[in-house]
Design brief:
oxidoreductase, 7-stranded parallel β-sheet, 2 domains, globular, 12 helices, Rossmann fold, about 300 residues, single chain, alpha/beta, NADP-dependent 3-hydroxy acid dehydrogenase YdfG
């Protein structure tokens, strides 16, 4: 081999993505951020199990394999596999990981991305809170309980949680969403510092507005949605996935697709009482704007 050929080989190898050849699970992957994360992971050379309670995840996964891969007789040669089930339950997590073991031969990275918006206000019952706590928090805990021991034995592993800027700031209009996203950030933080010496890494993604069904489910034109859409640019899931994977490759813990969230977080920490009073005034303004909008709409329908 000539010197120039050898240098070319070294250059090519040096730009190989750190997630290349990784065996990855992404939950909430039928659409939105989850599907975008899976797409970006596969583009960087990873093999992925896309998990979702929606059967639509099957079509999403099928669209991510090239014709050659999809037509292969060896199913484990595919870069995308679909699993349909409930990732918030212990049985679901166990089944998902067993599926990944079978299809991928193991799990190197876990993206706990599934999430729901939950009830407005304080909610009406324990059931309202149980559902969102299971999906937005306990699903993360249950996955970590299953994966951390095996990652400790192998000396490596990566856990990535999709939280929200609401987990650093708050979510106007929804106590349950705000509380569970704060808990998601706190849990990922604890994982990061506790298992670092075991070779295990953790990151948390905390975006503001992203153009997904979750944003639309927060209530069209309501205060909760307005609080998000007014605060900054509503990003595409693809933009969030690119930022997130770049940060994961750099082993960055706090991933902020909206960089301005860091300034908001610092402002909150610098004078908590002032921040709370300001947020209360902001909430009142949004509520008044929503009331006027409803009155205008009602008058127009008379």
């Amino acid at each position: 081999m000539s010197t120039s050929e050898n240098n070319a080989t070294i250059t090519t190898d040096s730009v190989k993505s750190p997630v290349a050849d990784k065996r990855v699970i992404v939950t909430g992957a039928a659409g939105g951020i989850g599907a975008a994360l899976a797409t970006e992971l596969i583009a960087r050379g990873a093999r992925v199990v896309l998990a979702d309670v929606s059967p639509a995840v099957t079509d999403t996964a099928a669209s991510l394999d090239s014709p050659a891969e999809s037509g292969s007789s060896a199913e484990d040669a595919a870069s995308a596999h679909a699993w349909v089930g409930d990732v918030s339950s212990v049985a679901g997590i166990d089944d998902l990981i067993a599926f990944a073991d079978d299809r991928l031969g193991g799990v190197d990275m876990y993206f706990a991305n599934a999430g729901i918006i939950g009830p407005a206000g304080l909610g009406d019952s324990d059931g309202d809170w149980d559902a969102i706590i299971d999906v937005n928090l306990r699903a993360h805990i249950r996955a970590a309980q299953a994966l951390i021991p095996r990652w400790q034995k192998s000396g490596s592993g990566y856990f990535v949680a999709t939280a929200s800027a609401a987990g650093l700031l708050t979510q106007i209009g929804s106590a349950a969403y705000s509380v569970t996203k704060h808990a998601s950030v706190g849990f990922a933080e604890w994982l990061s510092l506790t298992y670092r010496d075991d070779g295990i890494r953790a990151s948390v993604i905390a975006p503001m507005g992203v153009d997904t069904d979750l944003l639309r489910d927060s209530g069209a034109d309501g205060p909760a949605q307005s609080a998000v859409t007014e605060a900054g640019t509503v990003l595409t899931p693809e933009a969030v996935a690119t930022v997130a994977l770049d940060a994961v490759e750099a082993e960055q813990f706090l991933i902020l697709p909206h960089p301005e969230v860091l300034d908001m977080y610092r402002m909150k920490g610098s004078d908590y009482d002032r921040w709370l009073k300001g947020m209360s005034r902001y909430q009142n303004r949004l509520n008044e704007a929503n009331r006027l909008n409803e009155e205008t709409t009602h008058a127009g329908n008379d």
